Amino acid sequence: MALSQVGANGCICLPYFQGRSTPDWNNLAKAIFSNVTLGTTKADMLRSLLEGICYEIGNGIDTMGKYLDI
User: Fold this and answer.
1) Are residues 33 and 70 in contact, defined by beta-carbon separation less than 8 angstroms?
2) From CA 57, how far away is CA 23, in angstroms rounded?
3) Is residue 55 part of a domain?
4) Using one digit for the tens of pLDDT, what is the confidence trace for 6-22?
5) What is the pTM of this model?
6) Residue 1 CA to chain centroid, in angstroms?
7) Alpha-carbon gap, residue 63 to 12, rounded angstroms
8) Distance (Å, rounded) from C-alpha 11 to C-alpha 38?
9) For residue 70, is it within any domain?
């Protein structure tokens, strides 16, 4: 499988497969893939999923940083 570039060629994933947790709890949040076209590859979708997960982890770390030194 070919690699996808940073930004997943515009494919975006919100990885809320079981709702959203820290810092903004929302058990009704839904996961989506956006900007998927006929040119979107499996690698692009996987890359967008990993980028979305990493973004959410970073968001949680930033929130914790407001309360204690990390």
Assistant:
1) no
2) 10
3) yes
4) 999 999 999 998 888 87
5) 0.83
6) 21
7) 23
8) 11
9) no
